[in-house]
Amino acid sequence: MKNLQKALIAVIAGSVMTMSAQAAMNYTGQPYAGVKVGQYGPDDVDDDAVSYGIYGGYKFTPEFGVEAEYLATGDADAFKDEFGTSEYSADVYGLYATYDYMFPNTALYAKGRLGVAKNKIDIDDFNIDEEDESFSYSDTGISGGLGLGYNITPMATMEVMYNVYPTIDADGDDVDVNGFTLGAHFKF
Q1: How many folded domains does the chain comprise?
Q2: Based on C-alpha coordinates, what's the Rg of the chain?
Q3: Each residue's pLDDT tens digit, 61-107
Q4: Residue 159: inside a domain, yes or no?
Q5: pTM attached to this predicted model
Q6: What is d(CA 10, CA 143) in angstroms, rounded to the nearest whole number?
Q7: Which one, of 14, 41, 30, 95, lies nearest residue 63 by Cα?
Q8: Is the residue at 6 inside a domain?
């Protein structure tokens, strides 16, 4: 090989390595926002509620980020009997740290999130012989979830998540709450 060819190969190899290192160090982050729908299920109720919400986040690196969510439900039956019915609805506000693990050579990834959420349940009792009553219970605590996601395109993603929300103390009874959501978000 001539000296000119050796020098040219060295310059090209050095340039490629420099660009790769700069690309790895200059990850500027990725904001995203989306919508979700799912099921919200407190313990000891007749029906799980349909949940819907919005969420958004920011990826500081391809693996680590933060995410905020607001989730609400429609009315669902807590119980029914011959004396009346009880319905509930809920709201969840959460802030989470996230970790994504990309499976090699696929668009599939596993996602975990852990953070703090406020879980609020409103209950309406409709009694036949008595006056109707309304109650509201809420608690703030540790919340998290595990799920799988799929990058449909570089800018659009779908996720399915199993979520655990803070336990609520309802007049001395602990009410554990969990649920599933299916979400889709777009990256900016």
Answers
A1: 1
A2: 24
A3: 999 999 999 999 999 988 877 778 889 999 999 999 999 999 999 99
A4: yes
A5: 0.79
A6: 53
A7: 30
A8: no
**Residue holding tokens 């029914």?**
80
Read off the amino acid at residue 70: Y
For the chain, the average pLDDT equals 87
- Least confident span in 18-27, 33-42, 82-91: 18-27
137 domain residue, yes or no = yes
Res 22: pLDDT: 47
Task: Report the CATH number that the domain containing residue 176 is assigned in CATH.
Answer: 2.40.160.20
Domain that holds residue 127: 29-187
SS3 25: helix
Distance CA 63, CA 72 (A): 28
Return the SS3 of 29.
coil
CA dist 70 → 13, 28, 93 (Å): 49, 26, 5
Residue 3 in any domain: the answer is no
- Give the separation between CA 45 and CA 41, rounded to whole angstroms: 8
Q: What sign does the dihedral 53-87-168-163 (CA atoms) show?
A: negative
